[in-house]
Amino acid sequence: MIDVRRRTTLGRSSQDWLEARHHFSFGNYHQPGREAWGCVRAWNEDIIQPKSGFPMHPHRDMEIVTFVRAGVLTHEDSLGNSGRTAAGGIQVMSAGSGIRHAELNLEDAPLSLAQIWIEPDRPDEDPRWTHSQAPEPDGRTQWTLLVSGRARPGTLAIRADAEILIGRVSKGDELVYETLRKRRLYLIVTEGDGEINGLPIASGDGVAIRNEARISLRTRSETLEVLMTDTL
Fold this sequence. Notes:
The protein is mainly β and 232 residues long. The protein folds into two domains: 10-133, Sandwich (Jelly Rolls); 142-231, Jelly Rolls (Sandwich). Helix content is 0%, strand content 57%.
């Protein structure tokens, strides 16, 4: 099953400092059938205006992964952590037994990010935060593993049976991903237009996938880029 969710059908919320799109029910947005996808509970795409952001607020028992697409994200939390994550960077906050944090755009330009909430396998673990810069794209058609719950070298760790990858496809190439049918995949198109198993996809679309052992991505533009979760 491959369910292409067009960008225009996603949930939306807007404030003077924030423009958000919701792939799953979130906050005041509720869409039957889009409450979650396996252990993925939220996937939001936010544009945060300069000198604004989310003030200090609490979380617990959630793995919150943020991929910065443009601008710089400043993180502060109740553990004493603080840091800046620039475009192409990733941060992981394991809320565990409880943490308070702020996510801010202190810069002079808008901040664009994708944030994914994943339920952990184990509750009440010690909270933690980390971040890193993703590898620079080298033009090759390939998958790059960014985040994993399987202790993979070179990735940021989460406490869940989940992985997050970025896939890039060059014109004329095919990018294949194989997994177990019991797994659930969800991807967003972050750049370009293309096809997934022959179905058209465009920038900003989300795609929910299950009971598929193999997916094939091709591009109709110079490059297609997707961000994808692989979870139970």
